[in-house]
Amino acid sequence: LVVMAFAVYAFFSGGPGNLQWLYPNELFPTDIRASAVGVIMSLSRIGTIVSTWALPIFINNYGISNTMLMGAGISLFGLLISVAFAPETRGMSLAQTSNMTIRGQRMG
């Protein structure tokens, strides 16, 4: 059971873990890329700190099932925001992604 649980975790953690490093590097122009990735990683770490602190509190107050449903809801919200606002970069060069716009606003 432990090996099976680890295998499932390893299978599903590969995507999100890699995307937080790859997508911002494709998205931002070279002149601001390091700063933009730094800000994104900092926000990611702040979210990790807050969620690690809040998890036992939520489990005690709402139970494990409701806490997991809230986590799934937050993930779904993030998915919807990403689909609505994040541009597709598949098959594009870094130069092309640097010239992209989001809803008429130039990035960078």
Automatic annotation (TrEMBL):
<comment type="similarity">
    <text>Belongs to the major facilitator superfamily. Sugar transporter (TC 2.A.1.1) family.</text>
</comment>
<keyword id="KW-0472">Membrane</keyword>
<feature type="transmembrane region" description="Helical">
    <location>
        <begin position="6"/>
        <end position="23"/>
    </location>
</feature>
<feature type="transmembrane region" description="Helical">
    <location>
        <begin position="67"/>
        <end position="86"/>
    </location>
</feature>
<feature type="transmembrane region" description="Helical">
    <location>
        <begin position="35"/>
        <end position="55"/>
    </location>
</feature>
<dbReference type="InterPro" id="IPR005828">
    <property type="entry name" value="MFS_sugar_transport-like"/>
</dbReference>
<dbReference type="InterPro" id="IPR020846">
    <property type="entry name" value="MFS_dom"/>
</dbReference>
<dbReference type="GO" id="GO:0005351">
    <property type="term" value="F:carbohydrate:proton symporter activity"/>
</dbReference>
<keyword id="KW-0812">Transmembrane</keyword>
<feature type="domain" description="Major facilitator superfamily (MFS) profile">
    <location>
        <begin position="1"/>
        <end position="90"/>
    </location>
</feature>
<keyword id="KW-1003">Cell membrane</keyword>
<dbReference type="InterPro" id="IPR050360">
    <property type="entry name" value="MFS_Sugar_Transporters"/>
</dbReference>
<dbReference type="GO" id="GO:0016020">
    <property type="term" value="C:membrane"/>
</dbReference>
<dbReference type="InterPro" id="IPR036259">
    <property type="entry name" value="MFS_trans_sf"/>
</dbReference>
<protein>
    <submittedName>
        <fullName>MFS transporter</fullName>
    </submittedName>
</protein>
<keyword id="KW-1133">Transmembrane helix</keyword>
<dbReference type="Pfam" id="PF00083">
    <property type="entry name" value="Sugar_tr"/>
</dbReference>
